[in-house]
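Notes from hallway chat w/ T.B., transcribed later so I don't forget. T.B. wanted the structure written out for a chain they're using in a teaching module, and asked if we could keep both sequence and C-alpha cells in one place. Agreed to drop them here.
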Amino acid sequence: MKNKFITFARHGFEEHNNFRALHHVSPFKWSDKLAIQAQKLAYKMALKGSIQIPGIDLFGENRAKLSAVNFDCETAGEEATKIWYNQGNNYSYADPRLNSNTDSFTQVIWKETRDIGMGCAQRKGTLSNDIFVVALYYPPGNSPRALRQNVVSPSRNVNDAYSSIFRRRNKLYKTKRGQLVMREQAHGKKQQ
C-alpha cells in the first residue's frame, strides 16, 4: 500500500508541476502536512461514498471522484489533476471569473500557491470501484481580486477577441480636466 501511495503522490505532484510550467509559475513543493490532511479527507469521502463533506478552510482544495473498474490510487492522482486542469477550457483570461466550472483549474495553476499535498482512498462495491482524490494547497488560491495576477496564460501574449476589446476600450477613453474624452483610434482625432 505504501508503494502505491508513493506512486500516486509522485504522479499527481508531477502532473501539477507540468501544468504549472505551461503557465510560467513556480513548481509546487510537496508538503507531508498537507498530504496527511488530504488523506484524512479522502478516507472520509470513501467512507461516506461522496465528495460532499466539509473541507478545511485554511487550505485551497480540489476533489475528485473517479469511477471505473480500471482506476486505482496509483493512477488516480494524475487523472484527477488532468480533470481539474481541463476546466481551463472554460476560463477566459480576458474576462477572468471564478465559478464551479473553472475554480479547480485556477487552483492548480495559482501563482502564489507554493505547497501541495494529496490523498487518495478507494471504495470498492460489488458493482463499482470509486476512487476519491483530494489535493490541498497552501497558501490557498482563488481570490477573485487576485485572479489577473495569479492565473497566468500559457502564452503570455494572449490575443483573443475579448482581450483585444478590453485593451481597446481602455485606450479609447481618458479623462481630461474631469471630463470624459473619447479618442478616435482610426483617425487619431479627438471627440468630445
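Follow-up for T.B.: The longest helix spans residues 2-22. Might be a good example for the class.
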